[in-house]
Amino acid sequence: MELERDIVRALRQVFDPEIAVNVYDLGLIYELNVDEGHRVKIKMTLTAPNCPMADYVVGEVKKAVDDVPGVVSSDVELVWEPVWDKSRMSEEALIELGLEDD
């Protein structure tokens, strides 16, 4: 779906300020659903539950999605299960952070 591709592109522009990798490639986006009315629901997590930037990152994800042409509305839910670990990261993110051999 073209709209979903555009949303992923937008999510790749949102960075965790404590890590120099975008939230999508970090594997923080657990679910991305776009309904027929172009309403978007996202379930995402953070690398740690006590992240001091939680509100900021969630707000930036919502803003990025809302700014995608065609999106009618978005709902971003912060979840903690399953617990995030580096196995959720893309190959590019692992390389960027020097973790590909871990």
Summarize, please.
This protein is α+β, with helices and mostly antiparallel strands. The chain has helices spanning 2-11, 54-66, 91-96, and strands at 29-34, 39-44, 73-78.
Describe the structure.
This protein is of the alpha+beta class and 102 residues long. The chain contains 3 helices and 3 strands, in the order H-E-E-H-E-H. It has helices spanning 2-11, 54-66, 91-96; strands spanning 29-34, 39-44, 73-78. A hairpin with a 4-residue loop joins strand 1 and strand 2 (39-44). The termini are far apart. The model has no long low-confidence stretch (mean pLDDT 93).
Helix-strand layout with pairing:
Elements: H1 2-11, E1 29-34, E2 39-44, H2 54-66, E3 73-78, H3 91-96
Parallel strand pairs: 2-3
Antiparallel strand pairs: 1-2
- Report, as a whole number of angstroms, the end-to-end distance: 34 Å
Round the Cα radius of gyration to an integer and report it: 13 Å
Low-confidence stretches: none
Series of H and E elements: HEEHEH
| Annotation field: number of helices | 3
Tell how many strands the DSSP assignment holds. 3
Mean pLDDT: 93
Name the descriptors:
28% helix; three-stranded mixed beta sheet; alpha+beta; single chain; 102 residues; 3 helices; globular
